[in-house]
């Protein structure tokens, strides 16, 4: 198993690099496990894999500064997240959540438009440019025809795409996505992975929690495996996609095949 | 498409409903001035408003109807605004200004003051202090624990409300019979006891100036605390600001007219059914609609079976429930 | 119609004008009348009141008894005695006044019920310049004194004084007759659900006392305390008296027969008195007291 260790001399970080230093995420009642040293550089597409309850969402929230770590710290552009204002952070880092709180009525367009919130000063209104960005994001996620619909009338997959449209409207340099393909049909799963890859190609850093090994194998440049006991390992995707490591991760025997030059994993019966 | 959409979020889209609501508010105030148990013809009313007219009519319109109508408007405005804020704070469209036990604290203190034979001004003062005590207790209990969530605040407040409710029943049970009518009317809410309208009105205007710039941020908060934080909102300070603001508004309203029910729950809710949930529209609209509703309700309360006077809470419910159900049935 | 401004003196200006015509100078207090009210205020009118609004049924009754009936122009709900009061224009109920209706009657005197009327509303009347007399009658002495004062305020001092004197005399007669009567422990029932009685401060209790009755709940702290059936059983009244629901209705009394160990039940000392005669502290209370005394005499006869 190849594990990338942090190099002793840490280079001057790029502005958009997200770093985890000696990071231990805080899951109540669980031992600390191995501390994380991550550098998510522009253009990298990180996939976080692990069984249910391993802490994928907690890790993502900690990286987004929404949750305090047990120890260690997360830095963005060399600055600890705790020293950035929420607003400054939100201009550079965005996240798609797994669950949505649609307690109040809102249309699809309004929901996409709130992605511009960090960029508008309190006493200002959304301008035509903000709206154009939201419209473009809806268009990109195949949602233009639903723009005036209420969220409560959408299907699960449509709602998931609206969340991604909000993030695309926010257009951060770092994209965190918690199971972005949830509820999506196959076509839209691929479309979303293409969208994330496209953002990475533009120079964004992307971190996504995934359940689908094959999507991870196809679209991720780096992988981080979270084991239930707190053990963790990470590295470039090719080096991590080893059947024995993945079988240990899920406690599930796998059959591997190569398709189009990429490994495909199928559970054994 | 983009042009039409720009129009959709423009100020104009928000100003039109507000203009209508402002018109309705003026109309309601005019009706409140025109109607009473003594009939005053429109030309007489105009004469009075222009500074002339019959002396009795002057007294009726300027000394009785006007202050009471303004107090009703201010109280309704504060309650509806507080309700709208509380609903966002708790992310629960069914929250109302009283859900966190605030009116209970105010009522207990007011009843104690009445029992002690305090003057009306002291009863109002006691109600305000009681509301503040309730705010601080709930704040302290929900805040002291660290793991703070709206659910926790809601639970703390609801339990406090239940406790206050028991104390109110206790006070009613041990109070002298001749005090009971005054106490019950206070609990039901009644503008006959309202003093000067200026405190409620000025607080209403100031609070609107405070919350209007927060509108867009509140829209984001309505999507949940995590989502709001991810979009750059400092959630915890904002939530405490909301809590304290909504509580203070409610305290001032309760101090003016007792626990008038229904307005704080239904007005923001009804407006959302019609206008969506943009707080930049909903907050000022709540203010106007809440004031209008309570002004009309109070006018009915004092004229419907005059000279017998009804508690205004009865009318707000009788007016509000059918219109709410109508809007609900027509909404998607 | 005269112009009416908003200060105390201006409110009664029209009257002053009429009365002051002879003197040439309006405002001179030729016929000024002053009394102290039950709130401890000194109330002066520049002339006896001609348009009085009474804010409780009891006050209405007292005004009529003081000879001021013709000068009462407004009353509240349930002002049913004397019969002439039933036709008076209403200004709401005692606990919820219609100030507009009241002002429209253009009164020159408002007689409020201290403790019964909403303070804020009555205070507002004062602020609007209306003379307000606060009435709070607790016993026969209060009734008699109030009759005299109402007579003074309404320009019928003779009627007020005569009625007061005869009331005092009748009460003195009753007091004398029962001065040495054997004490009878009494439970006076005001209400059934919840079970309520009166304490020693209440005029009914004082009337009972006058007849040699002993109110078993005289020491309670509130005027009309809510009590439990057990405490009635524990104190074992010799007589149970009630005013009922306004009409002779024996159900409240019959309910006590479930407790045959009560002395009052064993001796059938379950009595009804006409509530109209005892529920208000007015001259009719003398007749009510007579009824109470008769009931106690019956109880003594059954020993």
From TrEMBL, chain A:
Matching SMART domains: AAA
Protein name, entry field: Iron complex transport system ATP-binding protein
GO MF terms held by the record: ATP binding; ATP hydrolysis activity
InterPro entries per record: AAA+_ATPase, ABC_transporter-like_ATP-bd, ABC_transporter-like_CS, P-loop_NTPase
Annotated ranges, domain ABC transporter: 18-253
Pfam families: ABC_tran
Taxonomic source organism: Onishia taeanensis
Keyword set, alphabetical order: ATP-binding, Nucleotide-binding
Automatic annotation (TrEMBL), chain B:
Recorded topology in the membrane: Multi-pass membrane protein
Database matches in InterPro entries: ABC_BtuC-like (IPR037294), ABC_transptr_permease_BtuC (IPR000522)
Transmembrane segments: 69-90, 97-116, 122-141, 153-172, 192-211, 242-268, 309-328
GO BP term (any one): siderophore-iron import into cell
Superkingdom to which the source organism belongs: Bacteria
GO molecular function terms attached to this record: transmembrane transporter activity
Subcellular localization, as worded in the UniProt entry: Cell membrane
Iron keyword on record: no
GO cellular component: plasma membrane
Keyword Transport: yes
Keywords of this entry: Cell membrane, Membrane, Transmembrane, Transmembrane helix, Transport
PANTHER family: ABC TRANSPORTER PERMEASE PROTEIN MJ0876-RELATED (PTHR30472:SF25), FERRIC ENTEROBACTIN TRANSPORT SYSTEM PERMEASE PROTEIN (PTHR30472)
Membership in a protein family: Belongs to the binding-protein-dependent transport system permease family. FecCD subfamily.
Protein name in UniProt: Iron complex transport system permease protein
Protein source organism: Onishia taeanensis
From TrEMBL, chain C:
Protein origin, superkingdom: Bacteria
UniProt name for this protein: Iron complex transport system substrate-binding protein
Domain Fe/B12 periplasmic-binding, first and last residues per copy: 51-300
NCBIfam families: TroA_like
CDD domains in alphabetical order: BtuF
Keywords (A to Z) from UniProt: Signal
Signal sequence extent: none
Any single GO BP term: cellular response to iron ion
UniProt cross-references to Gene3D superfamilies, sorted A to Z: Nitrogenase molybdenum iron protein domain (3.40.50.1980)
Pfam families in the cross-refs: Peripla_BP_2
């Amino acid at each position: 198993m190849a594990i990338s260790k942090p190099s002793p001399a840490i280079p001057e970080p790029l502005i958009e690099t997200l770093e985890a230093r000696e990071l231990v995420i805080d899951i109540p009642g669980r031992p600390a496990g191995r501390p994380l040293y991550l550098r998510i550089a522009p253009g990298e597409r990180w996939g976080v894999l692990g069984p249910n309850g391993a802490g994928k969402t907690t890790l993502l929230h900690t990286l987004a500064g929404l949750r305090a770590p047990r120890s260690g710290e997360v830095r963005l552009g060399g600055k600890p997240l705790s020293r950035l204002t929420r607003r400054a952070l939100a201009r550079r880092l965005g996240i798609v959540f797994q669950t949505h709180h649609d307690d109040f009525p809102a249309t699809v367009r309004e929901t996409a438009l709130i992605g511009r919130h960090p960029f508008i000063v309190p006493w200002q209104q959304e301008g035509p440019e903000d709206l154009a960005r939201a419209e473009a994001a809806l268009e990109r996620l195949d949602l233009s025809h639903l723009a005036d619909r209420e969220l409560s009338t959408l299907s699960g997959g449509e709602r998931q795409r609206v969340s991604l449209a909000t993030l695309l409207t926010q257009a951060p340099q770092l994209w965190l996505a918690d199971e972005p393909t949830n509820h999506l049909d196959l076509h839209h799963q691929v479309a979303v992975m293409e969208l994330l890859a496209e953002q990475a190609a533009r120079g964004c850093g992307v971190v996504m929690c995934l359940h689908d090994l094959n999507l991870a194998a196809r679209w991720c440049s780096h992988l981080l495996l979270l084991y239930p006991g707190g053990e963790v390992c990470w590295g470039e995707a090719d080096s991590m996609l080893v059947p024995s490591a993945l079988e240990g991760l899920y406690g599930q025997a796998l059959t591997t095949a190569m398709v189009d030059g990429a490994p495909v994993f199928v559970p054994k019966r | 498409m983009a042009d039409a959409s720009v129009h959709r979020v423009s100020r104009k889209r928000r100003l039109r409903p507000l203009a209508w609501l402002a018109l309705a508010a003026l109309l309601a105030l005019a009706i409140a001035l025109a109607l009473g148990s003594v009939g005053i013809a429109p030309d007489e009313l105009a004469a009075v408003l222009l500074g002339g007219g019959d002396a009795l009519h002057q007294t009726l319109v300027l000394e009785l109807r006007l202050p009471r109508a303004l107090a009703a408007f201010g109280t309704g405005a504060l309650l509806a605004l507080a309700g709208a804020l509380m609903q966002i704070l708790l992310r629960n469209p069914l929250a109302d200004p009283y859900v966190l036990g605030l009116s209970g604290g105010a009522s207990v203190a007011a009843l104690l003051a009445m029992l002690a034979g305090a003057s009306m001004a002291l009863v109002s003062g006691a109600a305000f202090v009681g509301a503040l005590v309730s705010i601080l207790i709930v704040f302290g209990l929900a805040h002291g624990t660290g793991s703070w969530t709206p659910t926790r605040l809601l639970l703390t407040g609801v339990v406090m409300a239940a406790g206050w409710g028991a104390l109110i029943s206790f006070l009613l049970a041990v109070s002298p019979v001749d005090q009971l009518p005054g106490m019950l009317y206070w609990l039901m809410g009644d503008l006959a006891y309202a003093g000067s309208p200026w405190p409620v009105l000025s607080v209403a205007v100031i609070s609107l100036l405070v919350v209007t710039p927060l509108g867009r941020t509140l829209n984001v908060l309505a999507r949940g605390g995590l989502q709001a934080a991810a979009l750059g909102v400092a959630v915890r300070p904002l939530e405490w600001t909301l809590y304290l603001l909504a509580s203070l508004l409610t305290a001032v309203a309760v101090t003016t007219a007792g626990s008038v029910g229904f307005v704080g729950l239904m007005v923001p809710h009804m407006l959302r059914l019609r206008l969506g949930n943009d707080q930049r529209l909903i907050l000022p609209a709540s203010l106007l609609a809440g004031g209008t509703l309570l002004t009309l309700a109070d006018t009915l309360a004092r004229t419907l079976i005059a000279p017998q006077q009804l508690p205004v809470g009865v009318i707000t419910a009788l007016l509000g429930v059918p219109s709410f159900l109508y809007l609900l049935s027509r909404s998607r | 119609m005269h112009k009416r401004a908003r200060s105390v003196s201006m409110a009664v200006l029209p009257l002053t004008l009429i009365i002051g015509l002879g003197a040439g100078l309006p405002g001179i207090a030729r016929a000024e009348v002053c009394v102290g009210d039950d709130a401890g205020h000194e109330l002066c009118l520049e002339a006896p009141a001609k348009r009085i609004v009474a804010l409780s049924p009891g006050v209405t009754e007292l005004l009529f008894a003081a000879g001021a009936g013709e000068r009462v122009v407004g009353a509240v709900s349930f002002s049913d005695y004397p019969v002439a009061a039933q036709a008076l224009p209403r200004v709401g109920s005692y606990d919820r006044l219609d100030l507009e209706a009241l002002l429209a009657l253009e009164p020159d005197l408002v007689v409020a019920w201290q403790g019964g009327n909403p303070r804020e509303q009555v205070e507002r009347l004062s602020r609007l310049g209306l003379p307000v007399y606060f009435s709070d009658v607790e016993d026969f002495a209060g009734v008699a004194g109030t009759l005299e004062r109402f007579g003074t305020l309404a320009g019928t001092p003779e009627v007020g004084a005569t009625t007061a004197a005869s009331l005092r005399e009748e009460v003195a007669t009753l007091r004398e007759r029962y001065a040495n009567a054997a004490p009878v422990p009494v439970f006076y029932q005001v209400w059934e659900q919840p079970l309520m009685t009166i304490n020693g401060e209440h005029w009914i209790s004082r009337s009972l006392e006058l007849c040699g009755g002993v109110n078993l709940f005289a020491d309670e702290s509130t005027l009309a305390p809510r009590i439990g059936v057990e405490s009635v059983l524990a104190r074992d009244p010799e007589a149970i008296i009630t005013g009922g629901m306004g009409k002779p209705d024996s159900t409240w009394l019959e309910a006590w027969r479930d407790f045959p160990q009560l002395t009052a039940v064993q001796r059938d000392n379950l009595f009804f008195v006409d509530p109209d005669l005892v529920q208000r502290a007015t001259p009719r209370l003398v007749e009510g007291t007579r009824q109470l005394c008769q009931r106690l005499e019956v109880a003594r006869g059954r020993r």
